[in-house]
Specification:
By secondary structure, this protein is α/β, with parallel strands linked by helices. The protein is built from 6 helices and 7 strands; from the N terminus they run E-H-E-H-E-H-E-H-H-E-E-E-H. Helix 1 links the parallel strand 1 and strand 2.
């Protein structure tokens, strides 16, 4: 089986999404130059054949030489870091809309294996998908009036979404369940994120409408779950 070296530094698509897809192409060996995230570890760690954690101050050419030396020692057939792709769930969105796995396609290309590329840029798909970052404001940017507990598992999502639309939480980007939502900080940028959801819908207009419905209705839905006292769904 071919050996694939994944160099982890920081950021990129969530490991629980990336690692199983790489492992489907060969042995996944990880060189972690920064601490690996504990979030969703039970999902991504089983995909790894080996993990090497290395603290280094190397930069530029010295860092390249370090990675190259490790790859040679391992006998790696391919080296990658997923920096080729944007963060959040863009690769999963491509899967949902076009039925293609860009992570596996990249790995197979690096391994010298045949890849079935589309003949032209894809502009029409079977569904619509988005990475929705939820912050404590509505769709117009008006901050929430309260600080309900963050319990998305207790929310009645069917009241927010159209039939056929799904909203899947991304573990890597979620704040701790059960904690009060922090007050919106206009200068906080992504620090305001409460969680990221992979939203899929029948078409682009439904997707836009339902993403806005989540942003406009989630504060009330979380407050209602607080009042009901119902436990969050697993």
């Amino acid at each position: 089986m071919k050996k694939i070296l994944y160099v982890y530094v920081k950021g990129g698509a969530p490991l629980e999404h990336v690692f199983p897809r790489i492992a489907g192409c060969g042995e996944l060996h990880v060189l972690a130059l920064m601490p690996l995230p504990a979030t969703a570890e039970a999902d991504w760690r089983p995909a790894c054949t080996s993990i090497t954690e290395l603290t280094t101050d190397a930069r530029g050419e010295a860092l390249v030489e370090l990675v190259t030396a490790h790859a040679r020692e391992l006998g790696a057939d391919a080296v990658l870091s997923m920096s080729e792709f944007a963060g959040l769930m863009v690769t999963k969105q491509i899967e949902e809309v076009f039925g293609m796995d860009p992570i596996a396609m990249l790995v197979r290309e690096l391994l010298g294996e045949p890849v079935d590329y589309p003949a032209a840029m894809l502009v029409e798909g079977k569904r619509a998908a988005a990475s929705l970052a939820v912050i404590p404001t509505d769709a117009q940017g008006t901050p929430w009036s309260g600080t309900p507990r963050w319990r998305p598992g207790a929310v009645d999502w069917s009241a927010l979404l159209s039939p056929g639309t799904t909203a899947e939480p991304v573990k890597a980007f979620a704040m701790p369940e059960g904690e009060p939502v922090p007050v919106y900080d206009p200068s906080g940028g992504s620090r305001n994120w409460l969680g990221v959801f992979l939203v899929t819908a029948e078409d682009a207009e439904t997707l836009r409408r339902d993403c806005n419905a989540v942003l406009n209705g989630l504060e009330a839905a979380l407050s209602a779950s607080d009042r009901s006292g119902l436990p969050a769904a697993n």
